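Subject: sequence -> structure tokens, single chain

Hey, anyone have a minute? Need the predicted structure for the following. Not urgent.
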Amino acid sequence: MIDKPDYLSHREIEKKACEFAEKYNTDGILPFPVEEIIEFDLEINIIPIPNLQRDLDIEGFTSSDLKSIYVDQFVMENRLYRYRFTLAHELGHIELHADIFRQFPCNSISEWKERYSAIGESDYNWLEWQANCFAGLLLVPTSALKYHFEKALETEEMSKITKIFKKRQITEDSIDCLLEILAGKLVKLFDVSTQVLKIRMEKEKLDIRLLELLEEIKP
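Reply:
Had a minute. Here:
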């Protein structure tokens, strides 16, 4: 009988991501050295596969013995932010779903399809959500995100931008635009996409922080 995925809240996943980071990234290095930890600390092989994304609409998968992570070759060679997130996502599976993944032989595209079919779409989507959360939290830790978010807000450039936005009607679109600008200023620090940063900002309610800031600014 196939094990069912455990229910894990976002904060429970955050605890596991923090424990992993404390063990393998004790100095809190940014960007999080995900590739180095996988290859040298965990001794997991990273194996590129041509056209993986085209053929399966996925960017990576993990072998059943948890010793290999297969990634789309084009993503690995040309899309740094996506590559790093894919590695962190697969680490999430290894840390959260090892018992489930060990039940299915998976060292090829055909075996991945069998694993997906056996687990079922609904449960697999749940596993994917958990791994995405783990990846986001690992690459963009909450404390570091909040600290650098506030530092970015303190810059003269962002001060001018927020004042310009304050003079307009405050809408969801204006908050979203400001988040996009701030995310763009932090991508190099975390080596993740603006989309990942925006998701993390919204999860930590930094969009509400922006709204409060705009309402505080007097014309």
